[in-house]
């Protein structure tokens, strides 16, 4: 919130002065201005310094401004007035992070596939996607989330062909059956040319929506979707749209014709490729006319342009898919499909405690539901059933979001369920403790002034941490990196617990001092709860 106190946003808009800030003392903000430092002439520095001074001269929170010889700016604050500023409601705090002009954003994340169980690899797009969605939405923007199911194409045809060849009654299939069938069907496609040809034939029929195979697809699709929805409900994840590749297949023939008519594509050995001069060439249709991810992704953009017309698209997908998205975004521009901004928000992988791929004993990818259960069984021993469920989801979210999304990391169940350290249990416990203190107070007075001289070191540290909220929020938004907010939340909880250990609150006999500390706790709790909401962490009321 220090940005709002100093009006730094106004400085950015109305002045040539740029800045990076930190605290040198509690009442001193140290502004490093690259634009000032670059200027060697003292007179030029003075001109820019005057601009800054004019911006701040009427600021009631500013006591003194000083320009150093090296181009640094020291701003001394009226501490009592800054402390008064902290007495803001949750709604007032949220107003400080609102964007000036709302935009439309679409967040494409999740990406489960029909016939496959959701595995640990789906955890990161779910968590990162939701956090970014919340960050942009709480900033006052119009946001849409789409899970984008992999519910069409070759894998579906493989499953259906396997069922046909083995006389498996599709109506009687369960989600578990599909998960067992798919790897067998996939292996058979790779090893058996006859089976592979039948898969290709059935895929053509599916693309044409031939009645029998299309009806079978509906059955298989619904089985998996119900299973996905059940797991997402368990994980506290929900989406505005539950669309998939199947949503746009009817648009593809028209899209292909449009590309041909505009001379954007050409045939190459039977395959349809883009004429854009890139290496490798962008493949739009295979030689057997089957669709690719590129085909359905392009059609999805056209669909979203018609229905939503977003200002910006975010694809929260594994960094290993960066080449695909580079091609996709370049193709969108080349085909004139959209003038929106497109971003691939990549992320690293989740590994086991040894740093190896997270797999079962059988060597399969670890199901996400199994990971949930592993955590739940640890926590149920220490908490009641309801708390254990919420805390399990907290562990899955907070442990993941603490990590810079670009990094791979080890998921250590024992470590992440601990009550101490950078854990979800620790931050949950901190919130419960603050709530418990405030519940025991009958009346809390909002103070007209604070006594600067009586501030302890732990009070100072806690207040400084509170003031860093909007900076951490804006950094997460600017770089699409939720870990800045997750790290901030841990730091704030840590500062509170240090404050709690060394400060009298409930047994403080000085009413003025007690109210000052209670006022600090109120705003601390408000920011903790706001950050919980943004990160997608539900709260428990007792532990």
Question: How would you explain this protein's 3D organization?
Answer:
This protein folds into 3 domains: 2-77; 104-345, 3-Layer(aba) Sandwich (Rossmann fold), CATH 3.40.50; 348-543, Orthogonal Bundle (Isoleucyl-tRNA Synthetase, Domain 1). 52% of the residues lie in helices and 11% in strands. Residues 11-19 have low confidence and may be disordered. Helix 8 crosses helix 9 and helix 8 (154-165) packs across helix 10 (193-207). The protein is built from 22 helices and 13 strands. A 4-stranded antiparallel β-sheet has the order 1-2-4-3. Strands 6-5-10-11 form a 4-stranded parallel β-sheet, sandwiched between helices. A 3-stranded antiparallel β-sheet has the order 7-8-9, with no helix packed on it. It is an alpha/beta fold and 543 residues long.
Brief summary:
By secondary structure, the protein is α/β, with parallel strands linked by helices.
């Amino acid at each position: 919130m220090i940005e709002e106190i100093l009006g730094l946003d106004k400085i950015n808009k109305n002045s040539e002065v740029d800045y990076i800030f930190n605290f040198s003392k509690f009442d001193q903000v140290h502004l490093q201005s690259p634009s000032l430092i670059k200027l060697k002439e003292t007179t030029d520095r003075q001109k820019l310094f005057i601009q800054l001074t004019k911006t701040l001269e009427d600021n009631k929170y500013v006591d003194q401004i000083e320009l150093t010889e090296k181009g640094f700016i020291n701003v001394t604050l009226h501490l009592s007035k800054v402390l008064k500023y902290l007495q803001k409601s949750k709604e007032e705090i949220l107003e400080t992070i609102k964007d000036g002009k709302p935009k439309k954003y679409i967040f494409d994340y999740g990406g489960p596939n029909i016939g496959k169980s959701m595995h640990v690899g789906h955890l990161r797009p779910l968590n990162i996607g939701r956090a970014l969605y919340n960050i942009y939405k709480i900033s006052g923007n119009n946001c849409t989330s789409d899970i984008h199911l992999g519910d069409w194409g070759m894998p579906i045809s493989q499953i259906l062909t396997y069922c046909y060849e083995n006389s498996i009654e599709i109506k009687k299939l369960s989600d578990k059956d599909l998960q067992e069938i798919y790897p067998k069907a996939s292996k058979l496609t790779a090893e058996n040319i006859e089976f592979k040809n039948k898969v290709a034939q059935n895929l053509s029929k599916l693309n044409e929506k031939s009645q029998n195979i299309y009806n079978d697809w509906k059955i298989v699709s619904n089985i998996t979707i119900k299973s996905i929805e059940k797991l997402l409900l368990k994980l506290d994840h929900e989406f505005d749209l539950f669309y998939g590749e199947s949503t746009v297949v009817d648009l593809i023939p028209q899209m292909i014709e449009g590309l041909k008519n505009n001379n954007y594509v050409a045939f190459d050995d039977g395959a349809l490729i883009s004429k854009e001069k890139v290496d490798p060439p962008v493949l739009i249709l295979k030689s057997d006319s089957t669709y690719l991810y590129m085909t359905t992704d392009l059609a999805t953009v056209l669909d979203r342009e018609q229905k939503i017309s977003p200002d910006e698209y975010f694809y929260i997908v594994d960094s290993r898919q960066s080449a695909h998205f580079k091609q996709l975004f370049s193709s969108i521009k080349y085909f004139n499909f959209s003038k929106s901004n497109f971003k691939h928000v990549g992320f690293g992988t989740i590994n086991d405690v040894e740093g190896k791929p997270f797999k079962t004993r059988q060597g399969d990818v670890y199901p996400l539901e199994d990971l949930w259960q592993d955590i739940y069984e640890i926590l149920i021993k220490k908490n009641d059933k309801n708390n254990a469920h919420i805390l399990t989801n907290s562990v899955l979210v907070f442990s993941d979001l603490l990590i810079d999304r670009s990094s791979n990391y080890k998921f250590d169940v024992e470590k992440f369920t601990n009550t101490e350290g950078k854990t979800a249990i620790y931050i949950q416990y901190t919130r419960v403790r603050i709530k418990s203190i405030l519940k025991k107070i009958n009346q809390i007075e909002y103070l007209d002034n604070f006594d600067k001289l009586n501030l302890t070191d732990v009070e100072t540290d806690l207040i400084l941490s509170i003031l860093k909220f909007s900076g951490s929020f804006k950094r997460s938004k600017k770089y699409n990196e939720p870990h800045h907010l997750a790290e901030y939340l841990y730091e704030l909880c840590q500062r509170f617990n240090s404050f709690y250990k060394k400060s009298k609150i409930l047994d403080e006999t000085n009413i003025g001092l007690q109210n000052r500390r209670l006022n600090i706790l109120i705003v601390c709790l408000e920011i903790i709860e706001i950050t919980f909401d943004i990160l997608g962490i539900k709260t428990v009321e007792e532990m």
